[in-house]
Fold this sequence. Notes:
By secondary structure, the chain is an alpha+beta fold. The chain is about 35% helix and about 20% strand. The protein has 2 helices and 3 strands. It has helices spanning about 5-20, 40-50; strands at about 20-25, 30-35, 80. The protein has a 3-stranded mixed sheet with strand order 2-1-3, with helices on one face. α1 packs antiparallel against α2 (about 40-50). The longest helix is centred in the N-terminal third of the chain and has 16 residues, at about 5-20. The two termini are about 15 Å apart. One of its GO terms (molecular function) is acylphosphatase activity. It is an enzyme of class 3 (hydrolase). This is Acylphosphatase-2. Belongs to the acylphosphatase family.
Amino acid sequence: MPAFxxxxxxxxxxxxxxxxxxxxxxxSKGTVTGQVQGPEDKVNSMKSWLSKVGSPSSRIDRTNFSxxxxxxxxxxxxxxxxx
Length: 83
């Protein structure tokens, strides 16, 4: 299994532990993109983890959270890895 898959699996596990839904994907530029949905406090916990902790052996140079909005219902039922 390629190493990058293992790294985003940590993100999937943390999202499930926190209780948010959405997805995460490695990009060809060596960055990670995704979408997180859930109660605001849980989304903020996930954002904090992504910004400060991340996967083991990952290097976090910066984080950029965009297109934040309030939604009336979740668009995902779980958190997954996209390829």
